[in-house]
Amino acid sequence: MKVDAVIRWFMPKEERFKELFQLDTENLKRAAKVFSEIAHSNDLEARRVKMTELKAIEHEGDGVTRRIFEALNATFITPIDREDIHWLASDLDEVLDFMESVSQHLVLFELSDSPEGLRHFSDILGGMVEEIDRVTDLLWDHATEKQIRPSLVRVSELENRADALYNTVIADLFRGRTGAAASDPVTIMKWKEIYDGLENACDQCKHLSHVISNVVAKNS
Question: Whole domain around residue 112: which residue ranges?
Fold first, then answer.
């Protein structure tokens, strides 16, 4: 092996990881957009079509995650700690998995309603994904904490809104304030499953923001 090739192998691959994570967050933004369309629709067949589209996006995300892990295994010196790259990729994958799972449950449970809580959750999740895309892109350019902090604060604010929304919709669900669900225990449990998945997706976004915050702190 030539000396310059050896040197390149030992050097941090900022561009490789930056490009892969750009693909990953762009894919997640596409997924959030499709999920929003699912959440705002009250047509079960339309949801079924969009669920298939979201499943394809999730499959693409799995491929990007696999490429990140392959790059991680093939790189001796990484631009940031290896465990942080692993956590970033895993968290992005988990957020997308939760969105895809919720969309599947909406179809499998034959839920065609588009209640306010579902729409609000999709809007919050979309906002969190936008901030994650922005801050992840800044991270690879070694941006300062001052540049990154506003997005992290915004993610935290949105996650707090998601927590409050979850408490409200679950309380309303079991108090019988959601229409047909009031007298149907099975429907109540179906919707609880939906909201649990959305809360988990938002929590995963918050965990990802903590990982980014730790990376910034290590490199400041």
Answer: 3-219
Q: Which residues of 63-80 are buried (b: 16+ CB within 10 A; e: fewer)?
A: ebbebbeebbeebeebbb
Give the DSSP H or E segment for 210: helix 185-219
Q: Is the pTM of this model over 0.70?
A: yes
For the chain, the straight-line distance linking the first and the last C-alpha, in angstroms and rounded, comes to 36
CB contact at 8 A, 114 and 40: yes
For residue 196, the domain's CATH number is 1.20.58.220
Predicted pLDDT of residue 2:
46
Below-70 pLDDT ranges, the chain: 1-15, 143, 177-183
For the packed helices 116-139 and 82-108, what is the interaxial angle rounded to 10 degrees?
160
Looking at the 3D structure of the chain, how many domains does it have? Answer: 1
